Amino acid sequence: MMRWQVESYERDGDAHLADHVLPGFTVADAARLVGDHPDLIGSAFPLDAGQVAAVSAVLGTELDPAAAAHFLIARAD
User: Fold this and answer.
1) H, E, C per residue of the chain
2) Which residues, including other chains, have CB under 8 Å from residue 12's CB and lie 6 or more apart?
3) Residues 6+ apart with CB under 8 A from 45
4) What is the pLDDT of residue 45?
5) How many CA atoms lie within 13 A of 47 on its CB side?
6) 70 has which bridge partners?
7) Does the structure show a pLDDT above 90 at 2?
8) CB 51 within 8 A of CB 59
9) What gap in Å lies between CA 71 and CA 48, rounded to an integer?
């Protein structure tokens, strides 16, 4: 099983701040968000402010693109 999540890190460091699991998120959703990359599964994709807003809507909570660096990544359960 696989889950898609947004991983948040310090902007001026490398400390991991949080993981935000995207419920019901699919490979097709990821491709629409970041593009249909051949390495979509297995890579981490930095999210810009518009992409952070889109995943915030899925999460039902606001992630601040200025407060942290956010990355989309697939993880095995």
Assistant:
1) CEEEEEEEECCCCCCEEEEEECCCCCHHHHHHHHCCCCCCCCCCEECCHHHHHHHHHHHCCCCCCCCCEEEEEEEEC
2) none
3) 34, 37, 71, 72, 73
4) 97
5) 28
6) 8
7) no
8) no
9) 9
The token duo for 49 is: 């402010």
Q: Which amino acid is at 16?
A: H
What are the tokens at 60?
């039902």
Structure token pair of residue 43: 């890579």
**pLDDT (0 to 100) of residue 3:** 94
CATH architecture of 2-76: Roll (3.10)
State the Cα torsion 15-20-25-27 to the nearest 10°.
Answer: 10
